[in-house]
Task: structure prediction
Amino acid sequence: MNSVNKTYFVQIIQEHQGIINSICHIYYADYEDVKDARQDIILQLWKSLPTFRGDSKISTWIYRVALNTVLVKIKKDRKNTLSDPLSDVHLNTGSHTDDPPNDDVEQLLFLVDRLEATDKAVMILHFEGYNHKEIAETLNMTATNISTRMNRIKNKLKETFKAAYHEIRSI
Result:
């Protein structure tokens, strides 16, 4: 790439570093893992920049590349270990224990944190205010698939919350 493209790339990264950092912190709690994921995302953005056609907003494209990079990284890590690959991947709620938090928002994040990686990505984008079509574009799925996933995720979260609430009430 020429220097104009390098300058443009650095500007894009600086303007949208919040997206990159958020995704890294959502999927990883360990500082070194966050750093590694951030590097992987930036490298993938650099490699993918020539293919960005401008059909979507730059932020949507960054979300797509970042989430796909993290999801591929998680799948690769899963193949390299026999343990649960998501056991060290937790939403950064300020607490990394298995004890359910008290605050409603923290409870929701606690439950979302335990979702499968792709479902977690759907919820992250939903929380960011993206509609089903935008989420579908970002994750290379259909809007119908996202709608179905959202319903299943919501039901799963409700059931998990009810079970946890019932367990706490019976103590």
About this structure: The CA atoms of residues 133 and 143 lie 5 Å apart.
